[in-house]
Specification:
single chain; 194 residues; alpha/beta; Aconitase, domain 4; 31% helix; 18% strand
Length: 194
């Protein structure tokens, strides 16, 4: 994972409620164990027509939205079955953060463990972000703060361990590996065996 300290990007709003993980990445694309290429199938059934061509009406297929790194999503984003492929697909496409009024717990956990920042905001803020879709916002991960139009600053909550891992660009295994010396010392000192 790459360190995630600062995001500055235009946003794209997909305010549909209850977007589940099968809509994010349909189950038929879960045959891979790597992230590469999953972004091509992100929101597949909305992005492509039955003959495999891009649906010009879907917002991710519109040129002004193609490089956005921040997705503004409707309430209850990422609900449904647990699959790491959902945050993998979003990240492989280019997203670094998802903002919603509610993000499903398992999706949120999978996102944080894989380097995607899930941000929960109140309904008023979400409505403002949807109205301002396409505008640039800045997210300071270290301060747990984003700056939207008119330099309005909005704080969001994230647990300290997840924030540390995002900022350092490590996952839980990477965190443990950073403490190998302390772990070995503990193993030598303990008087009991498992």
């Amino acid at each position: 994972m790459k360190p995630l300290k600062h995001i500055e990007s235009n946003t794209v709003a997909l305010p549909t409620v209850d977007i589940d993980t099968d809509q994010i990445i349909p189950a038929r694309f879960l045959t891979t164990t790597t992230r590469e290429g999953l972004g091509d199938n992100l929101f597949h059934d909305w992005r492509y027509t039955n003959d495999g061509k891009e649906n010009p009406n879907f917002l991710l297929n519109q040129n002004h939205n193609k490089d956005c790194q921040i997705l503004i999503a409707g309430n209850n984003f990422g609900c449904g079955s647990s699959r790491e492929h959902a945050p993998w697909a979003l990240m492989d496409y280019g997203f670094k953060a998802v903002i919603s009024t509610k993000i499903a717990d398992i999706f949120k956990s999978n996102s944080l463990k894989n380097g995607l920042l899930p941000i929960i905001v109140d309904e008023e803020t979400l409505n403002e972000l949807v109205r301002q879709s396409g505008e640039k916002i800045t997210i300071n991960v270290e301060k747990s703060e984003m700056t939207i139009s008119n330099n309005k600053k909005i704080s969001y909550e994230i647990d300290e361990f997840s924030k540390y891992c995002l900022v350092e660009g490590i996952d839980q295994l990477g965190y443990l590996q950073r403490h190998t010396i302390e772990i070995k010392k503990f193993e030598k000192m303990r008087t009991w065996t498992p």
